[in-house]
Amino acid sequence: MIFRMGLIIVMVILIMLVLTRVVTFMFGREITGRTYGEIGIPDAHHPISHHQRDPEKLVKLTKINTYHATLFAEFVEKLRKTQDGDGTLLDRVTLLYGAGMGDPNQHASKNLPLVLVGGGIRTNGGRHLAFPEDTPLANLHLTLLDRMGVRID
Fold this sequence. Notes:
Blueprint: H1 2-16, E1 35-36, E2 41-44, H2 45-49, H3 55-81, E3 83-84, E4 87-88, H4 89-92, E5 95-98, E6 114-117, H5 137-147
Antiparallel strand pairs: 1-2, 3-4, 5-6
Helix pairs in contact: 1-3
């Protein structure tokens, strides 16, 4: 808990002091053997993600995914509560949160659960966007770079 909050605070301070414009944070490597005793899951994430529709594994996977989403929400909330000029840090950043697998049981990298948060790129928020099935994730990355003034040919 202390380690987790410490990392969130460090990321907020780095952004606040404009010591960096880019922060990446991985809550848990998919292949790691890390367990989640702090939320009552003694199993490693990766083997649980290959759930084979086992209800017990699905419950554990949901608990781990919820935990990760909660960590992200805590980060977003810290940014929202941190004043920056006439707004907040959340108004100044763009955050992309999600997973690399839509269905980890099959290693399917389609239909990825992603969320884009913050006011850094000034886009119309509050929407759910669906794209054709084979749309590359790189399209989103290129759009974000373009909106941030980084031109890629």
